[in-house]
Amino acid sequence: QVQLVESGGGLVQPGGSLRLSCAPSGSIFSIERVEWHRQAPGNQRELVATLTSGGSRNYADSVEGRFTISRDNAKNTVYLQMNSLKPEDTAIYYCQLSIKSNLFGPPRDYWGQGTQVTVSS
Question: Each residue of 72-98: pLDDT tens digit?
Fold first, then answer.
């Protein structure tokens, strides 16, 4: 059973940076689509960034130019680099990976457990 392990959240001052990581435990064949979502208290979960298997990246308008989504295929790890953080970025951040367990089967979506990011002075 694949589980996603997230890390990298924490408390940071406005203008600071954090890098979130997400990696599957267990054996997998490949990571296809990568998404990062966030949910602030009282708000719905929102999509922050997307990285397709073809390498296309998309970002929410609120983070465009400040956040970067990336992946390291050798380590089977995905990242969300967050710069110029603002108090409104405070939320629990979740990774969602579309993972293939073998060459022939369809990909399946998995969610990370979430990591808290708090931006405050």
Answer: 999 999 999 999 999 999 999 999 999
Query: How does 21-60 read in b/e, with b if 16+ C-beta sit within 10 Å?
Result: bbbbeeebeebbbbbbbbeeeeeeeeebbbbeeeeeeebe
64 in Cβ contact with 97 (< 8 Å):
no
Q: Is 2 helix (H, G, I), strand (E, B) or coil?
A: coil
- DSSP secondary structure, 8-33, as one string: --EEE-TT--EEEEEEEES--SEEEE
d(CA 78, CA 8): 12
Whether the CB-CB separation of 81 and 12 falls below 8 Å is answered with no
Contacts 24+ apart (CB under 8 A), 111-116: 111/4, 112/4, 112/5, 112/6, 112/22, 113/4, 113/5, 113/6, 114/6, 114/39, 115/6, 115/7, 115/8, 115/9, 115/20, 116/9, 116/10, 116/91, 116/92
